[in-house]
Amino acid sequence: MNVPQHELEEIRLLEQKLHLPEIRRSPAVVEELLAKGFVEFGSSGTVYDDRDDLIAGLAAEKREEAAPPVISRDYAFRSISPDAVLVTYRSVRRAGESSPERHTLRSSIWQRIDGRWQMIFHQGTPTIPRD
Q1: How many whole angstroms separate alpha carbon 119 and alpha carbon 38?
Q2: What CA–CA distance (Å, rounded) separates 11 from 85?
Q3: pLDDT the model gives residue 56
Q4: 86, CA 20 to 30 Å: which among 11, 59, 73, 118?
Q5: Mean pLDDT, residues 26-38
């Protein structure tokens, strides 16, 4: 039932791609990464359950409005089935000119759909800094 290690590494890289502004602004790439029916419980408390609206919103982010880069660490993987993985990790968004540093606990479920990994669920929960 376990997903092979090389596929877990692939999933981690896909997760990290979604942190990159240039990826987030590319509807075609985001559409490949997020499954139809994708749902996110955002760290702001907002529920995002319209994939098309989310993709359009990400594409509309302007370079100057984009938040500082996200640093992610402490990844853990749990196979749910041969074709599904729960990913948990911590992220830190560095302080920007007008925003403080943000620490978030994150979880995602990735599913192999039509031979490729796609995210079906994501949640971000604000937390305090940890060494």
Answers
A1: 7
A2: 9
A3: 87
A4: 59
A5: 95
